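Researcher: Quick sanity check before group meeting.
Model: Go ahead. Protein one:
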Amino acid sequence: MSTRTLRAGTVVAVFAVCAAVVSPAADAAPFDLAGWATQGGGTTGGGSAAPVTVTSSSALTSAIRSANPAVIRVSGSIAISGMQKVTSNKTIVGVGSGAAITGGGLTVSGASNVIIRNVNFRNWSDDAINVERSTRVWIDHNSFSNGYDGAVDVKRASDYVTVSWNKFSSHDKTMLLGHSDDNGGEDRGKLRVTYHHNWFAGTNQRHPRVRFGNPVHVYNNYYASVGSYGVASTMEAGVLVEGNYFENTKDPYHRGEGSSPAANLVARNNHFVNSGSGDAGGSVKGIPYSYTLDSASSVKSSVTGGAGTGRI
C-alpha cells in the first residue's frame, strides 16, 4: 500500500490506496466475487451442497429458512408476500434469465455467508433485499424494478457486503446503507460495502445513500439519466467514488442529504457525459483488498453488456 494525497474540490483528502489493477477492456473481466464480501473469511454461500430447485413460494421459503447449508435454484416466477427470512450459508440463484421473485422480498437478518444471484425482483411491497445484522453477503447479477421501498438496503451493523453487476430500473429509492443517524453505536466500524458494475437505468435516488460506513467503495458503475442524485455521503461516512460513468445525471454525488449532515467523499477517475461535476471533500479510509479497476470511459459498454439477469 502507498499513501497518496488527492484534492477533492478545495479539501485535501488523504487515504491509503490499495493495489488496484486498471483494465482497459472491462467486457473481458470475470464475474467473480470482489470487494468487501471477500473479507472476514470470504463468502461462499451454500458451497458444495447439492442444488435443490424450487418452483413455488412454499418450497422457496422452506429452503431459505433451513438450518443447513443450501444451494437453491429459483425456477420460473415465484410470488411471495412480505419479507421472507434467509438464514446463513445459502446460495439463491435464478435459473436462466426468467427466474423472478415478485410481490415480496428477502431479508438476510442475523445471518452470515449468503449469496443471491440472477433473480428478477419486481413489485415488492417492502424491500426487495434487506440485509441487517448480517455479514459476508454477495448480491450479484440481479434485476430490480417497480418496487415500493428499497431495492437493496443494508443496515444495523451489517458488514462485508458486495453488491455487483445488478440492474436497477423503474424505481425510486434504490440502495440505502445505514437506516438512521441515531444508530451510530451499532453501526460505527461496520457497514463496509462495495458497489461495483451496477447499472442504474433512470432510477431516482440512493445509489447509494450512506451513513457511518467507512470505507464504502463505489466503483465502475453506470449511472444513466439518474433523476435526483447518484451517491450521497452522510453522517460520519467515508465513500470512495471511483471510475464510474455518469451520463445525463445532473447530481452525480454529494455530501449530506435531507436532515443528515455531510460526511466524507473522495472522487477520482470518473467519466462524465452531460452530467454535473459532483461535490466531494474530506478523507476516506484505505481500501484493504485488491481489485481490477476498469477505465471509466469503458464502463457504459461493459456494464450494459454484463449487468442484470441472464449473464451468468
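Researcher: Fine. The other one?
Model: Protein two, sequence then structure:
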Amino acid sequence: MAGKTRTAMMEETRGKLLASARKSFAEHGFAATSMDDLTAAAGLTRGALYHNFGDKKGLLAAVVDQIDAEMAARARNLGALAGTLWDRLLAEGCAYIEMALDPEVQRIVLLDGPAVLGDPSQWPSQNRCLDATRDAVRQLLDADLLRPVDVEAASRLLNGAALNAALWVAACEKPAQTLPKAQEAFRLLAEGLLTER
C-alpha cells in the first residue's frame, strides 16, 4: 500500500486543524480558545498551525470562510426551491438572515468574525456572495423585472441588507423574535427595486 502524498498529508493536517478550531471557536469563542488545547485536540503541534494558517487569526479566517461557504450553499439550495428568479433572490437573502440563529454561525461568523477580522464586506467569502447577487440582479434586469438600477449598487445594497440583518439578529437579546422583523424589512427593501406592473 502506497503512503500518502505530501499534498494529501497537508490537506489532512489542515482539515484536522479546521475541525478542531471550528469546534473550539463555537464552544468557547475566539478569545477563550487556547492554541495549545486546539492543536492538542487535533493531535498536532503549534508549528502545524503556524505553517498552515500563520496564526490563530489566520485559522479563524479559514474557519469563517469554510462556514460562510456552507451558508451560501445552504441559501442557494433553499432559494432553488422557490419559484421565480425574484422569489429565489428573496429566499436566499432570508435564509442567510435566518442562519444567524445557528449557534455556530452566530458565534464564529457573525460575532467573533467581525470583532477579529474586521469588516465582513471585505471577506473573500462575502465577495463570492456578492458575485451571486450580481448575477441574479443582471438576470432580473434583463427580464425587465427591476427598475432601471445600477447592477453594482443594487447588488451591494441587497447583500449589505442581508448581512447587516444577520449581524443584528446574532447580536440582539432575543434573536428568534428579531428574525421575522429582519426578514420582513429585507423583503420590503428589496421589493422597492421591482418594476411597477
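Researcher: One line on it for the slide.
Model: The chain has two domains: 8-54, 66-191.
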